[in-house]
Design brief:
The structure holds 2 protein chains of 2 kinds. By secondary structure, chain A is an alpha/beta fold. Helices cover 31% and strands 17% of the residues of chain A. Chain A is built from 13 helices and 11 strands. Chain A has a 9-stranded mixed sheet. In chain A, strands 5-6 form a two-stranded antiparallel ribbon. By secondary structure, chain B is mainly beta. In chain B, strand 4 and strand 5 form a beta hairpin. Chain B contains 2 helices and 7 strands. Chain B starts with 10 loop residues before the first helix and ends with a strand. In chain B, the strands form 2 sheets. In chain B, strands 5-4-3-6-7 form a 5-stranded antiparallel sheet, with no helix packed on it. Classes of the chains: A alpha/beta, B mainly beta. The interface between A and B is large, with 37 and 39 residues. Strand 5 of chain A pairs antiparallel with strand 3 of chain B.
Chain lengths: 394, 138
């Protein structure tokens, strides 16, 4: 006689809202150059995150990472003594994948495919190779339409959208400086940040060298060696872990119709990027609105991504992202404090994973730039590329 | 300098450019132009396409001025401009290129301060077969 499968505990199609939580976070030091390789750094960050959660490596049965991660599941599982894996996932598009790694684990755990998931990012970006320098590999579509003309780097590609945003909406370099300054001010409060002891002034910003006009040196993120990880479990399990659970309230990925990589010049409306698509799904499944978000960790490989994200996630109207940054809005005590660990611009650039761990710290009440009583946090992945986002709550 | 590594979908574009012609892939069934080239029409899902000649006139949609660090060939010419041109015949078709002073002029030949969004431009071709752009009213 056939035996029906045991479906107790499987949440079915009710969605992932608050069904799972981040129970542990971990990281290595951040530096321009670290002696250990990416595999070793990944292992250290994952063990730190499991220790933070109070969960043994053998209990891990799910992994999620980015396609650009060079430490694969087989290596991690073998090195750390993980258990049998029943779910593993890799998300593409570089910095657009950060939040999706956590979202995939949340979905897997909420639907009973796994019980303990780890997501991580390990990178030797300060001392290792940068992917876009390998031009012969990357030159076929879409690079054949851009690289021969000298549009070579992500900075050049985003600067093109920045110039257009400035032209259409009156966004200024002062607006971009407001973003860079908010991130730097928070990094100056965070001893783990690479720019901890290096304040930024408006004069430094305005007189710095160009990278790709209209973007200057301080509009570009750091290049960093380091690794981070976080542990996702069911909400029930998280309540028995060492730390205050941080619930995954809503999650989304976004790849808009007719979108094209980071050179999104070829659809009808290039200034409404993947953030708009992710945001629609994110808010549809949330119990609160942008007005209720107390702190945000917005992907900042370039300052200009912040105005685009503020518009896309509904904190202001279209074209108002530059003006939103005025009057200290992004600073501690402002309308929307952002990137409270310093972000990719001033803490570390590890493809945005540090924004997830900082979001967790805010909701635990342990950030070095704590927003008093913060109970809701938006975390986003790279705007301009197929992206992802998380709404976290305590 | 980097030369285009051509894929099957893009090859006709570069073939026409080498002959001094700017052509855009167009659906042979619904007549919608599309860029970059691809096997199937996103509007009607037809696999039939043709390469339609365009006037080669357009407007600057946006531009950047890259500075080093860059690949060595480009670093030597920096600062130079890169523009995105919106085609007059098909405003949703935008091409990345360079604004230069004349056919085959280097990518740093036009001072960046002379570039304006909305400026009218005309296509020319380099000896290497790359589309380039000159100001209609220099």
């Amino acid at each position: 006689m056939a035996v029906a499968p045991d479906t107790a505990g499987i949440r079915g199609v009710t969605g992932i809202k608050d069904a799972t939580a981040i129970a542990g976070i971990g990281q290595t030091p951040f530096a321009r150059q670290l002696p250990e390789n990416e595999r070793t750094l990944a292992c250290r960050a994952i063990l730190a995150a499991l220790d933070d959660a109070g969960i043994a490596p053998a209990e891990v049965d799910a992994l999620a990472s980015y396609t650009m991660e060079e430490t694969d599941e087989v290596e991690v599982a073998k090195a750390l003594g993980l258990g049998d894996l029943t779910f593993f996932s890799k998300v593409g598009y570089g910095g657009g994948g950060s939040c999706a790694t956590v979202a995939h684990l949340a979905a897997a755990i909420a639907t009973g495919q796994a019980t303990v998931g780890v997501a991580w990012r390990s990178r030797k970006r300060g001392s290792g190779p940068r992917p876009w320098k390998n031009t012969s590999v990357q030159l076929p579509t879409p690079a054949q339409w851009t690289r021969p003309f000298g549009l070579l780097r992500p900075s050049d590609e985003i600067a093109m959208l920045t110039r257009r945003h400035m032209h259409e909406y009156g966004t200024t370099r002062d607006h971009l400086f407001n973003v860079a300054l908010a991130c730097r001010n928070r990094a100056n409060q965070n001893p783990a940040a690479i720019m901890y002891d290096r304040p930024l002034t408006r004069e430094m910003y305005m007189t710095s060298r160009w990278i790709s006009e209209p973007l200057c040196l301080f509009d570009n993120c750091l290049e960093t060696d380091g690794a981070l990880a976080c542990v996702v479990v069911s909400a029930e399990r998280a309540r028995d872990c060492r730390r205050t659970p941080v619930y995954i309230h809503s999650a989304a990925q976004g790849l808009p119709a007719q979108h094209h990589g980071m050179v999104n010049y070829w659809n009808d409306d290039p200034l409404t990027g993947p953030a708009w698509t992710a945001a629609r799904h994110l808010w549809k499944h949330a119990d609160f609105t942008p007005d209720d978000v107390q702190v945000a960790q917005l992907y900042d490989a370039f300052t200009a991504l912040i105005p685009l994200s503020l518009e896309g996630y509904g904190f202001c109207g279209r074209g108002e992202g530059g003006a939103f940054t005025e009057g200290g809005a992004l600073e501690s005590g402002g309308r929307l404090p952002i990137n409270t660990g310093g972000g990719g611009l001033s803490e570390a650039y590890v493809h945005g994973f540090n924004l997830i761990t900082e979001g967790v710290r805010q909701l635990r009440g342990t950030s070095t730039a704590q927003v008093p009583g913060a109970a809701t946090c938006l975390v986003t992945a790279g705007e301009g590329v197929p992206t992802s986002a998380l709404l976290l709550r305590s | 300098m980097l030369t285009p590594v051509v894929d099957e979908d893009g090859a006709p574009f570069w073939g026409y450019a080498a002959q001094g012609e700017l052509r855009v892939q167009t659906c042979a069934d619904c007549a919608e132009p599309r860029f970059p080239p691809r096997p199937c029409c996103p509007h009607c899902q037809s696999f039939a396409s043709e390469w339609r000649a365009v006037s080669g006139r357009g407007r600057v949609w946006s531009y950047v001025v890259p500075h080093p660090p860059l690949l060595p060939d480009y670093a030597e010419l920096a600062p130079y401009n890169v523009i995105v041109v919106e085609l007059a015949d098909a405003p949703r078709i935008r091409l990345v290129g360079n604004l230069v002073t004349g056919p085959d002029a280097p990518i740093n030949s036009l001072p960046p301060e002379r570039i304006r969004i909305g400026a009218r431009v005309q296509v020319v071709f380099s000896s290497a077969g790359l589309p380039q752009w000159i100001l209609e009213r220099p």
